[in-house]
Amino acid sequence: MPIQQDYIFYKKLIKLFLLAVTCYVLPQTSFAQIEENDYTSEYTGGVNLNTNGGLIGGLAFKYSRKISHNQYTYYGLEIINVKHPKETRLTNTSTGNSYIYAKANYLFPIRLQYGREIILFHGAEEEGVQVNFVGALGPTIGLLKPYMIEYDYGAYTQIEPYDPQNPRTPLGSGGLLTGFTKSRVAPGFNLKAALSFQFLQFKGNVTGVEAGGILEGFTQKIPLLVLEGSVQPQNRSFFSSVYVTIFFGFRK
């Protein structure tokens, strides 16, 4: 079933890419009413929401530079939190603190992206809507941070990485900021295609929404969940997701 879902996702991603390319290569007469852009660069930042990251998936930043009438070079940076789809949160009835059962690691992909941003439809200089196609790829630095648990050792408690062999009772999560010194790196790559809807509220400033899909792969399987015994959750080396980024920024 996961393979079939990934196939459907990739098929939709390819269709989106082909649609954007088709729009771009239409005869120039189709864009007869398009006016020349009066900005040469754009800087934006925003909040990312995606199907692998929960309510708030991470942060996204972009710089684009004009290279032709309708094209911009795209440079992107994203810092995202990726979760396993089968994470289960439990609560210790004695302390009231919660923790994620069998979670072994956090995965924070740091994505560097290079590509093209193609203007499909120009908005008015003020209070208009501009529609762009974005296609980009680049390396991923996957930061694997151990999931820290506070264990009860009777006379004392201790925060340490989750261990399925540990017979002690988890009192709760050790916190997101603990354990970074024990992190390791998993290299990978990322590829995305999206449509960007920019609302030009006033000259020099821009807000908008970027919506699309992303494919990401690593050189190893990412151990997000680890169980005791022979039955293990499905940890993968490839991830796909649909995302929305709400951004704001300015132009020069």
Task: Describe the protein in words.
By secondary structure, this protein is mostly beta strands. 9% of the residues lie in helices and 55% in strands. It is built from one helix and 13 strands. The protein has one helix spanning 2-24; strands at 41-50, 54-66, 71-80, 88-91, 98-101, 105-121, 128-146, 148-152, 157-161, 170-173, 184-202, 205-218, 238-251. The chain has an eight-stranded antiparallel barrel with strand order 1-2-3-6-7-11-12-13. A three-stranded antiparallel beta sheet has the order 9-8-10, with no helix packed on it. The protein has a two-stranded antiparallel ribbon with strand order 4-5. The model is unreliable at 24-36 (pLDDT under 50).
Topology of helices and strands:
Blueprint: H1 2-24, E1 41-50, E2 54-66, E3 71-80, E4 88-91, E5 98-101, E6 105-121, E7 128-146, E8 148-152, E9 157-161, E10 170-173, E11 184-202, E12 205-218, E13 238-251
Antiparallel strand pairs: 1-2, 1-13, 2-3, 3-6, 4-5, 6-7, 7-11, 8-9, 8-10, 11-12, 12-13
